[in-house]
């Protein structure tokens, strides 16, 4: 094997000025990680429903608690934010929205839509079921 | 440089070791599953909202219905696949120790497959009404 060539490394976070699109890119990844582990909650809930009343009551006790509610609320936001933020990537994948004002608008849109949809879903949830 | 370097030229070394032309597979599947979930998210949220406030018997009855079981199963397959690819990208970005990277990629696969299989098994069990 020949000597390792010292290749230039691509600069990492500390090199760049913080911008909105960069922050949202990090949030996209962070919400992705949160959803990854949040899937355990979805899985637990389905398994409990298939297991019986006792197991299901445990899930409901958890999602009804303050911590449980916070986690499910956070999960809802992470899911909906990752969704609308991901739709932004579809635009970019297709070659649209690369002008400075366009990418700012898309990014603000994703941030606002993610929060609005989360609030909307929880309003519906409380209207329909009076909370969990 | 402890060992003598190969007599092969740099070009010769990289020939046939280059692109396998499958580099965009994960990129494509990430988008495929993303579009699938974008289409499925509204019915999935409606299903979850339908279940709020119900006890196990009520929830099991709704989850056992055919269209709902299929929608949830599709959503779980898409999300498990999507998160497997996403987490692998994160692992490959930040873990530089080769053995730890391999172990993490493997654990990621196990986690995603286990979550998907457990969820789908639960849905099938609810559908069979046991």
UniProtKB/TrEMBL annotation, chain A:
* Name this polypeptide is given: Succinate dehydrogenase cytochrome b556 subunit
Family to which this protein belongs:
Belongs to the cytochrome b560 family.
Q: What are the transmembrane regions?
A: 20-46, 66-84, 105-128
Q: Name its co-factor(s).
A: heme
Per UniProt, the keywords (alphabetical) are: Heme, Iron, Membrane, Metal-binding, Transmembrane, Transmembrane helix
Its organism's taxonomic lineage begins at: Bacteria, Pseudomonadati, Pseudomonadota, Alphaproteobacteria, Hyphomicrobiales
Q: How is the cofactor bound?
A: The heme is bound between the two transmembrane subunits.
The record's subcellular locations are:
Membrane
Q: Which InterPro entries match?
A: SQR/QFR_C/D, Succ_DH_cyt_bsu_CS, Succ_DH_cytb556, SuccDH_FuR_B_TM-su
Q: Which GO terms describe its biological process?
A: tricarboxylic acid cycle
């Amino acid at each position: 094997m020949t000597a390792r060539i010292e290749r230039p490394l691509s600069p990492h976070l500390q090199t760049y000025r913080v911008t909105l699109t960069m922050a949202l890119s990090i949030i996209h990844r962070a919400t992705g990680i949160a959803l990854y582990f949040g899937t355990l909650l979805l899985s637990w809930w389905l398994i409990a429903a298939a297991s019986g009343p006792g197991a299901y009551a445990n899930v409901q006790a958890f999602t009804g608690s303050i911590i449980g509610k916070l986690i499910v609320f956070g999960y809802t936001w992470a899911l909906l934010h990752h969704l609308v933020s991901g739709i932004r990537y579809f635009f970019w994948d297709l070659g649209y929205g690369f002008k400075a004002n366009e990418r700012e608008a898309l990014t603000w849109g994703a941030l606002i839509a993610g929060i609005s949809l989360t609030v909307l879903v929880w309003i519906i949830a409380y209207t329909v079921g009076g909370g969990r | 440089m402890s060992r003598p370097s190969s007599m092969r030229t740099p070009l010769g070394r990289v020939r046939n070791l280059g692109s396998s032309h499958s580099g965009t597979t994960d990129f494509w599947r990430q988008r495929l599953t993303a579009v699938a979930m974008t289409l499925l998210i509204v019915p999935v949220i409606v299903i979850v909202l339908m279940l709020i406030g119900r006890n196990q018997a009520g929830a099991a009855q709704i989850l056992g219905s055919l269209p709902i079981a299929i929608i949830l199963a599709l959503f779980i397959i898409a999300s498990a696949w999507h998160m497997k690819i996403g987490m692998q990208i994160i692992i490959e970005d930040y873990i530089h120790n080769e053995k730890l990277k391999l172990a993490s990629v493997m654990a990621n696969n196990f986690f995603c497959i286990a979550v998907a299989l457990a969820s789908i098994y639960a849905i099938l069990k609810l559908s069979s009404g046991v």
